[in-house]
Amino acid sequence: xxxxxxxxxxxxxxxxxxxxxxxxxxxxxxxxxxxxxxxxxxxxxxxxxxxxxxxxxxxxxxxxxxxxxxxxxxxxxxxxxxxxxxxxxxxxxxxxxxxxxxxxxxxxxxxxxxxxxxxxxxxxxxxxxxxxxxxxxxxxxxxxxxxxxxxxxxxxxxxxxxxxxxxxxxxxxxxxxxxxxxxxxxxxxxxxxxxxxxxxxxxxxxxxxxxxxxxxxxxxxxxxxxxxxxxxxxxxxxxxxxxxxxxxxxxxxxxxxxxxxxxxxxxxxxxxxxxxxxxxxxxxxxxxxxxxxxxxxxxxxxxxxxxxxxxxxxxxxxxxxxxxxxxxxxxxxxxxxxxxxxxxxxxxxxxxxxxxxxxxxxxxxxxxxxxxxxxxxxxxxxxxxxxxxxxxxxxxxxxxxxxxxxxxxxxxxxxxxxxxxxxxxxxxxxxxxxxxxxxxxxxxxxxxxxxxxxxxxxxxxxxxxxxxxxxxxxxxxxxxxxxxxxxxxxxxxxxxxxxxxxxxxxxxxxxxxxxxxxxxxxxxxxxxxxxxxxxxxxxxxxxxxxxxxxxxxxxxxxxxxxxxxxxxxxxxxxxxxxxxxxxxxxxxxxxxxxxxxxxxxxxxxxxxxxxxxxxxxxxxxxxxxxxxxxxxxxxxxxxxxxxxxxxxxxxxxxx
Length: 655
Ligand code: WT7
Hints:
- Helix content is about 35%, strand content about 20%.
- It is built from 21 helices and 29 strands.
- It has a seven-stranded mixed beta sheet with strand order 5-4-17-16-18-19-20, sandwiched between helices. A five-stranded parallel beta sheet has the order 7-6-8-11-12, with helices on both faces. A four-stranded antiparallel beta sheet has the order 21-22-23-24.
- The protein is globular, with a radius of gyration of 24 Å.
């Protein structure tokens, strides 16, 4: 049970075919069908996407151009008018789905709720009217800082309905991180809850919002809208804070969906990069709606009778695309779960599957590894026979965990889709189509139709079979991010200039290392930049370093990822201290807590090592690469000739 090593992956050549029965009933039934679709999309992408947009979505007004590509800026379905909340709700109300379960919710303490499409529509309309009542207008931004309760999805759909962009901030982020994101997005209103359940304790969300907004530090904020979840005492500020249940009693349930331009801002979602502060990834309406819709339909092979469950949090892109928008646009039944795997409830996921007869289950390798450790007796004591398809996302999955997932959870009968994608891509990019593409444990297999993914070198040339290189995409796709909010230059630099554009051909640089095998299958190896992936959460090493140096005791900090059995990677920080401070256990604890306060518990370093000096180049740059090798316990590789003082490294090695 460990992260895939290059050796284990190179030896991995098992091939698993879907059963004939699965393929026969699937949307995409054979490898030939996949290749036909892929070729069609490659030869004539505009017709491919236009046909899907016309048949799969409802438009208030047709577009006049499918794609306007001014690299690296894309516009899809130009001048088309639609509303994603209409596509997720209203259009199902005139069909039998009106009374179908849209959302099945399980709370951590054991409470639950089911909302039909008609009921969800009604609540979204009321929520939208409540937002309007608080002054939110088309074009405004709304912050959402919520636990995993139905109102999180309702708030997102309500924003989309009235043309306000949402910016969801994961409930595990600190008040400081929340404040930075609200300031950058110039949010007018924050939607939150009194608290949320997290591993048997209450996360005081409203209290964090109060801290984030203290002393008018987010000038754009006019109001907050607070959902009652946990019921503990909270401070409500007279003219600023409003209870959702109080407004709900007064607002109308009539709120027609605003016709939005295809390229109108749908949401901003902040994600970590290799430099500076987190960037606001911008997604717009039409292309995102189509891309999440069609990927959900084909990759999860959604059938109308399915109960579908993605275990992500709505604070991440996976929750946006594959709990809320993709499934609801397809009229599916989507499950939402507030709890998390924890020692006190090692069977919690399997209970939800048994209780609701979940057919399609989508989770992260880090969760799978945690469950392996908790023991097979927990899944074995539950009836998991409803499952017919499994998925993974967020990080490479090691073949051993893949096989466990297939055997113990899938009973050997369920295909597994290992889905590679990013906040920036909007939806899944490389994946098996479960009825069509045979799988290999540890490989995300092949690109989705319309996605011209390749493994290339830094000159932009494709590398040979089984050679390592950089994961890249050659052609724009509807779900792609449009820009970095407020910083188009950063968008260009970060994603489109690593590979020098040639003859007007721009290549999207994903930041991942990968190789393709002799069958063209992709094997994603992990980030090649200063981004680390801790338990499926993406963090910038520089962000954690800035948090550390903002503490008065810290002179310099260098943060690297260390391979970890359970979390994939763990955070190791090297710090040097200001003259008047000396190393102690207390200071160590304080520094960890300081990072939690600045960013959130997900960024808490597993280890902090005090050092006299950090390894630097002669020009003064910290050589993180050497520290990475050091903590990984591997031989220090690569060029060390630029190292200014070799003894620094020797000292660190001695600990
Ligand atoms: C990074 C994106 C959108 C998915 C949730 C994370 C890694 C994601 C896989 C996979 C190997 C994966 C990559 C990517 N990643 N899925 N199936 N196999 N690596 O979204 O926070 O934007 O992180 O997650 O390194 O670049 P994110």
